[in-house]
Amino acid sequence: MFEIIASASYWILVVLWLIIFWLYIGSLRVSKSVDKTIAALLLILAIDAFRTLFESTYFGLYFNSLFGFLPIGVHETLSHPSLMVVPKLLNIIAGLLVLFLLIRHWIPREMHQRKAWIDGLRREKQIAEQQREAAEVESRKLQSVLDAIPDAILITDTERRIVATNMAMQRVFGYSIDELAGKKTSVIYASEKDYEQQGRLRFNLSAEEKAAPYEVEYKHRDGRLFPGETLGVALREAGGEVSGYIGVIRDITERRDNENKLRLAASVFTHAREGIAITDDRACIINVNNTLCEMSGYERDELLGSNPRILHSGLQKSEFYQAMWESLVNRKHWTGEILNRRKDGRVMADLVTISAVCDDDDVVQHYVGLFTDITKIKENQYQLEHAAHYDELTNLPNRVLLADRLMQAMTQSQRRKNSVAVAYLDLDEFKAVNDKYGHSAGDQLLIDVSKRILSVLREGDTLTRIGGDEFVVVLADIEKMSDCEKLLLRILHAASEPIVLDEYTLSVSASIGVTVYPQDLVEAEQLIRHADQAMYTAKQQGKNTIHIFNTVENDAALDYRQFIQGVRLALERQELVLYYQPKVNLESGEVIGFEALIRWQHPERGLLSPDQFIPRIDNHEISVDIGDWVITTALEQIRQWQRLGLDIAVSVNVSPRQLQAEDFVAKISGWLSDYPSITPNLLELEILESSAMSDINDVSKVMYNCLQIGVGSSLDDFGTGYSSLEYLKLLPAGFLKIDKSFIRDMAEDTDDKTIVSAIIGLASSFHRTAIAEGVETSQQRRQLLAMGCKFGQGFGIARPMPAEKVPGWLKEWKSKPHWAD
Fold it and tell me: Of 644, 637, 651, which Cα lies nearest the Cα of 681?
């Protein structure tokens, strides 16, 4: 079977190659005239086909004869060695022929085509390079355009990885282009949650929906968050597939701030407590807030379109508004107070600030006015100013306004070459009216007197009340002294006229001191002091009179001021000291206490007794300071003696001014509380009889109040004043001290002896204890004891001594009292 198939296959190959050879020969005839190279190729193929056809025929005959399908002789013939060479020669010839044809026709063509192909590749490469360069140019142009855009731009792929950005990304987000390349956009979101949320919201929408801007909170490279307005667009291929996204991000922080400012401005405009009006450049109102409507009483529609002159009150001159517009034109700003009028006609005071709003060329576009209603403030200010400058009781100018009026009058006097008179007026016996009829009657008297004085003054004159019952009158434009004197007399008579109050008729007079400027060429305050000094002189001259200031009085006043300053310095420098004089029982010699007597250790004049300086300060305020010092020093000395085992009572002298101080009793109570070891009865007050008589009611009240806290008192120098049984009855003094002037001469002067005896009798009758001052001899001691006076003090017992000598003296005295011979 194999032999059959093998034999048949060779003949099938012969037929096939014959057909192929025939096709090649047919194609060769056609292509020979078209393309020689193709013809040569076909010829090579035909030769190869002929060679294969020959071999197939040869081996077909060979194997068929071998297998017995042909005569065996054929096999033998074909197996002859000479014939076996034929196929090989045919292959060699065919190979050489094919090689010739390839060299002759195919290789040159292939070389030519290869050259053409290489040239084509070069051309294609050149074109590609040109296209690449053109693409790079276009890319740079596009990048330049992107970088020129102030908003941040980023391009991502479909996975939201950043592919490209512009320079604004670095400015907006702080990242460089290299830092962002390839990273996911989550790096620029406030949080991973926001990144995912925006992915769900923005990256599954249609192109139309993505085109709508939206706001997102982004994160800067430094960690701070900022709002960004984003415009997202999907990038699509030609077929419509999404290939990526492009996002444009604008930092809207400034816009947000501006929007907030605008909202705040709108809120301020609407809710401001100040009125606001906006006008155009012609001052026509284009907007107002509700507050201005409420302030002015006008409706909004009534104000819109009108000029701000609708609010003018007419109380300010045209020059005022001219100055305002000059400021607006030159400085684009004005602030001041305007008196406007409400719709109902009431005047209101407004603090107004107007500002011009200009464009970039400094051309006014609008005016903005801010109105603050200060009507109540002005009313309060007026009340405060009135209270600060006017007396509450009489409504007259007070001391503050007096200084201003006097300065104006002095300035005017210099211009007009005339004079100014300053009159200091004090009502005589006014205190008696207060004491007898009460303070309300005294107040009404002051009101009526001030009205009467005002009625006789000229228009340019000024009447002021500077306190209590004291007034100062400034008489301006005095041409002649005689005119001034007439005015002063009219004032004196007006103040002295009786005043009917209910069923009482009150009568007072006035003492007036006067100085004239520029004859008295001093400052305003000094003029008032000079007039005050002249008034005291008028008092001394008998009251109800006028006294003109002169330089002699001025010298005396200057000397007095220097003296007071010296006393003040003595107090500060601790030059004042207390000496102590014992008070004893004239019969037994028992020491009942000491009187504290002040001394001044003057740095130049030596040790001064109280008679050398105390009388000059009695009516001065420094007497209160000195008196306070005496009491506190005495209390401290009592405590020091207590530490030595001595319980010594001390009496101190009290000045009239100190006694009349409102807080006198409270101060004593406070001082005693500072010394708890001292019982109040160890402190005694010595009050001059003349001081007690000057204001019997007040002094009596003070003495009673002191007695309630355990501090007793004595009437000093009794018999030298206006001794009265009624006064003695009213004053709760435990001791009456007989003045030493009566003791000194009672041995020779029967009148003095009678007075002493009478005082001792009064003391006994009113259950008071009499103490004799100035006991210097044994005879005086015996006389006093004979008349019933058991207590005394004086040089005959002991001279005043420093505190440190008291313990030694007491020891010596107790061992054996040494009465003076």
Answer: 651
Q: Is 720 helix (H, G, I), strand (E, B) or coil?
A: coil
At 305-340, the pLDDT tens digits run 999 988 888 888 889 989 999 998 899 899 999 999
Residue appearing with tokens 């109102």: 285
CA dist., res. 355 & res. 367, Å (int): 6
- pLDDT tens for residues 168-217? 888 888 888 888 888 888 888 888 888 888 777 776 545 444 557 888 88
- Provide long-range contacts, Cβ within 8 A and 24+ apart, for 192-195: none
β-bridge pairing 419-428 and 470-478: antiparallel
| Cβ neighbours of residue 452 closer than 8 Å, sequence gap 6 or more | 494, 495, 497
Report residue 620 as tokens: 């001065």
DSSP of 364-409: EEEEEEEEEE-HHHHHHHHHHHHHHHB-TTT--B-HHHHHHHHHHH
**Structure-token pair, residue 36:** 């020689």
Going 253 to 258 to 263 to 265, the CA torsion angle's sign is positive
Beta strands in 541-695 (DSSP E): 546-548, 576-585, 591-602, 606-608, 650-654, 683-688
pTM: 0.43
Q: Which parts of 559-670 are beta strand (E)?
A: 576-585, 591-602, 606-608, 650-654
Within 289-346, strands assigned E span: 333-341
CA distance 162 to 237: 18
Cis ω before 518 (30° cut-off from 0): yes
What's the 3-state SS for 71-87?
Answer: CHHHHHHHCCHHHHHHH
Q: Rounded to an integer, what distance in angstroms lies between the CA atom of residue 327 and that of residue 335?
A: 9
Give the DSSP letter of residue 200. H
H, E, C per residue of 218-270: EECCCCCEEEEEEEEEEEECCCCCEEEEEEEEEECHHHHHHHHHHHHHHHHHH
The H helix count followed by the E strand count for the chain is: 31, 27
B/e letters for 534-555, b = 16+ CB within 10 Å, e = fewer, are bbbbbbeeeebbbbbbeeebbe
